[in-house]
Amino acid sequence: MPEKATIADVARYANVSRQTVSNVLNSPGIVKEETRRRVLAAVEALGYRVSAAARQMRTGRSRLLAIRIEATQDGMNVFDRFLHGLTESAARSGYRVLLYAADDDRSEIATIDQLLGEFEPDGFVLTSTHHGDPRAAWLAERDLPFVTFGRPWDAPAATHPWVDVDGAAGTEAATRHLLDGGHRRIGFIGWEAGSGVGDDRRAGWSRALAAEGLDAALAAETDGSAARGRAAAEDLVARGADALVCVSDTVALGALQVTPAVVGFDDTPVAAAVGLTSLGQPLAEAAARCVELLTDRLSARPGASHVLLSPSLVIRKDPRP
């Protein structure tokens, strides 16, 4: 084995050209899977380590995708599963994930600007999109590659790539599940009006009730905490609600202290532990599609402009009263 393996050593070991080795390390998407595995096996066997600085000088790419770490609420954060999936998917495409923290949109834009000067990420993944969101516009104005996990709520025809989960379809399925169980006065506990995600999830509940000729009047807004979820549930049950659909598992855990007929959203480990029926988001697939759309843009490959995924209802309790 060479004292310090070179790209030529890897090429000879894998019986491929040096260009193929370079493609595997820099543009793995254009190499056949069998060849890619053979080259990576050679890299591992020889202990070859590419210089990140040299590669960036040669290709003009840092192979870094940057994303903000999301805050937790009441100890729960579904974003961790998305981040894990993003890291794995990025690695398969030859990228690493660069994490950063920010308190709000303005500080995130400032942080992105700083990262561009210090690390030169190839692209960005924005999360938690919302009405009046300035981040996508800032990146688009500078022609910086990015993808959003979340729809562009103010600009449905936006041209940047995005991936999202169909919250309305999820809460509609949850409401139908409760209707099939015999409930007719089904309430909804959401976030404050104006939240793109929250309003979308409320729309699915309302649509399911309207299809049955039922009034969607039993709704409450919260700050998203379990404590406010419980208070909202107490109010809705006092007004006659016999079941509740909740915007998140955090809110549902509060509601579950008031009535057993509750459906949450996110299917967190806590939901599984307490037996809460909940809507699971395909976060690993969402992360993989985010990487796919972003790397397509970076490689100038034609591809989808957006992806809308469906959540799945995980039933853990009999919905019948």
Automatic annotation (TrEMBL):
A GO molecular function term, named singly, is:
DNA binding
Q: What InterPro entries does its record include?
A: HTH_LacI, Lambda_DNA-bd_dom_sf, Peripla_BP/Lac1_sug-bd_dom, Peripla_BP_I
Query: Among its keywords, does the record have ATP-binding?
Result: no
For this protein, the record's SUPFAM superfamilies field holds: lambda repressor-like DNA-binding domains, Periplasmic binding protein-like I
Q: Specify the superkingdom.
A: Bacteria
Record's keyword terms, sorted: DNA-binding, Transcription, Transcription regulation
Keyword set includes Transcription regulation: yes
What sequence ranges are listed for the domain HTH lacI-type? 5-59
The name of this protein is LacI family DNA-binding transcriptional regulator
| Source organism of this protein record | Nonomuraea typhae
What does UniProt list as this organism's lineage?
Bacteria, Bacillati, Actinomycetota, Actinomycetes, Streptosporangiales
